[in-house]
């Protein structure tokens, strides 16, 4: 009897200030499209994508459940509850708006408090824009400080979007396999 269901189901939350591109990153990854009109996420929305990820040369079917959490301050308490049980998170800032970068530490701290062992990616989004104000060196510095994955992305062009989700998923599976090995 063959079971075609996923071998892993991983929860991933999208965090960052409003209008940094969290929803656009998810839409580009799950639907391979970009929405030109900005619509603020109200509360939360959920997307699901099944992918095959190779870990140590072995392919696994993985279901990624993407929780797109609203970035507005009024949703802070709600976000904390929705973070619980996450295997992964991606923290997004807009390279054209330095305040969104400055707020990343708070996003990280709030998530790390709830999910200390989760895989975290720092995402510098909108790198296709000519009005960039946050240089790559700032993201690289924060990557080293927080010890997280760092990617520069463009939800508009699709640059590094698949890599973001695939690298996080591979790292989360490897972490889960290491935990299982420790238990046995």
Describe the structure.
The protein has helices at 22-31, 76-83, 98-102, 104-114, 136-146, 161-183; strands spanning 8-15, 44-55, 58-69, 88-94, 119-125, 149-152. The chain has a single domain, classed as 3-Layer(aba) Sandwich (Rossmann fold). The protein has a 6-stranded mixed sheet with strand order 2-3-1-4-5-6, sandwiched between helices. It has 184 residues and is of the alpha/beta class. The model has no long low-confidence stretch (mean pLDDT 91). The chain is built from 6 helices and 6 strands; from the N terminus they run βαββαβααβαβα. The longest helix is centred in the last third of the chain and has 23 residues, at 161-183.
Topology, please?
Blueprint: E1 8-15, H1 22-31, E2 44-55, E3 58-69, H2 76-83, E4 88-94, H3 98-102, H4 104-114, E5 119-125, H5 136-146, E6 149-152, H6 161-183
Parallel strand pairs: 1-3, 1-4, 4-5, 5-6
Antiparallel strand pairs: 2-3
């Amino acid at each position: 009897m063959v079971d075609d269901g996923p071998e892993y189901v991983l929860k991933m939350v999208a965090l960052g200030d409003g209008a940094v591109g969290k929803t656009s990153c998810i839409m580009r990854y799950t639907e391979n499209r970009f929405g030109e009109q900005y619509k603020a996420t109200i509360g939360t929305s959920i997307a699901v994508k099944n992918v095959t990820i190779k870990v140590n040369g072995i392919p696994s079917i993985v279901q990624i459940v993407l929780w797109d959490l609203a970035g507005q301050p009024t949703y802070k308490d709600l976000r904390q509850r929705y973070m619980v049980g996450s295997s992964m998170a991606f923290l997004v800032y807009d390279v054209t708006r330095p305040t969104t970068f400055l707020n990343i530490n708070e996003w990280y701290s709030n998530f790390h408090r709830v999910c200390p062992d989760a895989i975290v990616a720092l995402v510098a989004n909108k790198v296709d824009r000519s009005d960039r104000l946050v240089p790559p060196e700032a993201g690289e510095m924060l990557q080293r400080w927080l010890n997280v994955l760092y990617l520069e992305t463009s939800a508009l062009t699709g640059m590094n979007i698949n890599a973001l989700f695939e690298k996080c998923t591979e790292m989360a599976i490897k972490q889960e396999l290491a935990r299982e090995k420790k238990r046995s």
